[in-house]
TrEMBL record:
InterPro entries: TPR-4 (IPR011717), TPR-like_helical_dom_sf (IPR011990), TPR_rpt (IPR019734), UCP035836 (IPR014596)
Region (Disordered): 54-73
Superkingdom of origin: Bacteria
Name of this chain's protein: Tetratricopeptide repeat protein
Amino acid sequence: MTAQAICSPLLRRLVQSTAVVLVALSLAGCAGQQKKELTTGSIPTLSKPVQSMNATELSQAAESIGQALERNPRDREAGLNYANLLRMTGRNEQALAVMQQVAINHPSDREVLGAYGKAQAAAGQLEQALTTISRAQTPDRPDWKLKSAEGAVLDQLGRSSEARLRYREALDLRPNEPSVLSNLGMSYLLTKDLRTAETYLKSAADQPGADSSVRQNLALAVGLQGRFQEAEAIARQELTAEQAEANVTYLRSMLSQQGAWKQLAKADDADTN
């Protein structure tokens, strides 16, 4: 099986079930990335930064901002923030419905269109997401976040070569951006080129501004190569004890599927013979 091969459904489920950037996207994609996307403006004051909120607190924040949106359905910031929080709590279909209304009210807003595309992708509407993200992009002022988002959607569609081209275009616009390097690394992980994936993910983790989600992706790539202690050490970095233990527990759960990974590799190799 070559690095360019399209990954099978089992492998795709294995990788997608981690909180990778690919659909959360920088889709630019993951929970940590989405938490940074909350905008300011008319949203209610939150009791603490969303980065440190647990699931219950995130749900309460979403309810508060949702009420603000009900009071003013055309409020752009409230709509964007509410949709982001809904995605962070796994309510992707509701987030998509919110973003549909925001896009109707702000049809030419690039940020809104980009967020709408992310919501479509998170809800599984991948072809529609590509169209929406393409509408948001402008040739004279290309946006690296949209390039990365497009790449993430293409990866979900199994079009890895096109996806990696978009990531490299994003890196041309934003050199060494950790979220894009992480997406590029996860693209290689999706096609089981684990060494190349680790190289890009390590580079991403070494960049200033790399968040926890980047390190968790690196931990997954390292663990899938059998270096479990090293993977756990990475997963514990710069987190509270509770967050670290939760991440390590999840990582162990993912890596317990090593047998399925190896069986899949053998099946794929057999298909190419």
